[in-house]
Amino acid sequence: MLEGIYQVGSVQNSDILEDITQRIEEKYKYIIKIVFENQDDQWSFVKIDSEENSQDKKNLYCLVDGPSNGPSRTPVVLVPVEKNKFFRNNQENIDAHINDILEKKFRKKLLNSLKSFIETYSPNEENKAVLNQIQAIIETSKEAIENTLRDFLSQNSTIRVENKVILFTFIENGKEYYPGEFIPIKETIESQGKYAFTDFYSKYGIESKANNKYCFFCHKIKDEIWGYASPFSFYTVDKESFVSGGFNQKYAWRNYPVCPDCAIKLKTGEKYVSNNLRFNFAEYKYLLIPQLLFFDKNQMKELLKRLQSYSTFSLSNQDSTRIDRIEEYIVRKLSEENNLVNFNFMFYEINNSAFNIILLIQEIPPSRLKTLIEKRDEVDEKFKEFFMPIKTKKEEVDFNFHFGFIVEFFKGGKEDIDFKNDCLQILRNIFYLKPVSFDLLLDRFMAKIRKCFVNNDEFNLELFILKSLKILLYLKETNILDRRRYVMNGEKPLDDFLSRFPILDEATKRALFLEGILALKLLNIQFRDKNAKPFYSRLNGLKIDEKVARRLLPEMINKLEEYDKNYYKELEEAISYYFTQSDFSKFTVDEMSYYFALGLSLGKHYKKEDKEEETNA
Ligand SMILES: [Zn+2]
How many helical (H) and strand (E) elements, i.e. helices and strands, does the chain have? Predict the structure, then answer.
């Protein structure tokens, strides 16, 4: 994973100024400039000026954040207006507001920012001399600057009441330079800017650096090595699991030593991936991180071009009815790559603008993706007669397998809780071809199915039953469905039909499944004759235990006889036969109810013996 990010970063053109400066948001409407001028090698303060914030000038404004609540590392300070504090428009309030800006933003932050810049980046002698001179001038002209700034703010109320930025500019030979183009700053950042990534070597006030050590990525002995250089901060040394050398953070570099040059590549890789390789899968967002087995610059560049085009494609096709097909298209495309690349999937969520990794699936070869896709195609084809699309007024619902089916069962609603972690675990197991627990699935299947049943929501009942079955068939075909297996020997009634469903490998299951079919037939007859389905209420809210199961068979036969429409003798005999072989104690009520529910939905595929039924069912 890290190697992949490093590889991606290695083929990017890194522009250090672009990389380390922060965009100043549009809500900061104005830029107030404290202007210095150089005449005859002597710097002096000349005036206060202002302009509107321009998004094109990010690198010129050159804001580099410092520690929280501390000064920035370049002479720029953000001045958000505290509206709740300084809202009254009387002189007293205006003076207080201006004093607040002078004290907190100008004296505390802006003046210290130059000091912070010199400390962070240690400019060369020549540049340092210029910056020191400017610092000295600021010190001696502090009063003049403050007074001018005070006048400026009291005269320009439109600027005062808005969010703004204060920065220094520098005039030389008649041209005004912003911080990002002022040579002593620009040159220093270009040569030393990597030290802006202080979080790569300093955390909670503890520095982790070493000299003349081996770098994890370029495999060279480097002058300086950092200990916390982790993109996406997912391998944070705060995590116990990643600290092999105990908890002494100072020595983090021993576990994961990265030289400053490689740290920048990680940073650029992270940025590229975040901006260009975002995808969706089964309703979750993920970042795709490719990783070549043998790194080659050109190969990586070509690969990134292809991947980026998929991303553009998927982002431009957000038609909700087709999203699952687009997601699948991406996986299909990835599966066509050769096995010299592995893919890492970083599933994430953004909560309150914080980036949280929720699942990491690492080093998946394209051949694995191919297996997952091919099995899906096989299952769809093999069972297509049982999964005919359902047409609604709005759309056509098809049952071609996609991973979103699984999410649907685990997603919380108004009344049920979210089982996200279980769901992610299942998706993870599928990618790694590890067993997926039948019992875990069954629990969620029956929760959704039973809810539709008791709410008389026949449409969704049908969708959930068919989707759940498709999930089981897919996992079974992929050989990762973890379930108890049974063996049935000898000739069995209706075996041709029943053996189509590999999970119906036991007498009790078959009895319940066939009973579900018979129930459907009876309900259909009732609906045809009475336009109602009174027998629905005899199904015990779809909680089918042994007692209910044994009660239902004679009840259903009696009803059919009563209507003189008992066309299902063969079915009834088969149920009786399987009952004699059953052992209900092996199954939970949920599992029994599930086979019954499958029968309710698939009953329409059981052979039709009556002309009347055929035309109406
Ligand atoms: Zn290195």
Answer: 24, 17
Helix-strand-coil percent breakdown of the chain, rounded to 5? Answer: 55, 15, 30
Ligand 1 midpoint to CA 194 (Å): 13
Find, among 59, 89, 88, the residue nearest to 76 by Cα: 59
Instruction: Return d(Cα 60, Cα 23) in angstroms, integer.
Output: 10
The three-class DSSP label of residue 583 is: coil
Dist. CA 617–CA 600, nearest whole Å: 13
| Rounded average pLDDT over 504-509 | 96
Q: What is the pLDDT of residue 206?
A: 75
**Whole-number Cα distances in Å, 265 to 9, 194, 262, 290:** 4, 10, 5, 15
- Is there a contact between 456 and 542 (Cβ–Cβ < 8 Å)? no
- pLDDT of 321 > 70? The answer is no
Element (H, E) at 38: strand 30-39
Average pLDDT of the segment spanning 559-568: 94
Over 90: is that where the pLDDT of 517 sits? yes
CA of 258 to the centre of ligand 1 (A): 6
What's the CA gap between 335 and 313, in Å, rounded?
Answer: 17
- What DSSP character marks residue 501? S
Stated as kind and residue range, the H or E segment containing 49 is strand 42-52
How far is ligand 1, taken at its centre, from the CA of residue 31, in Å? Answer: 39
How far, in Å, from the CA of 221 to the mean position of ligand 1?
8
What's the CA-to-centroid distance between 264 and ligand 1, angstroms?
A: 9
Consecutive H or E run containing 29: none
Nearest to 166 by CA among 152, 187, 181: 152
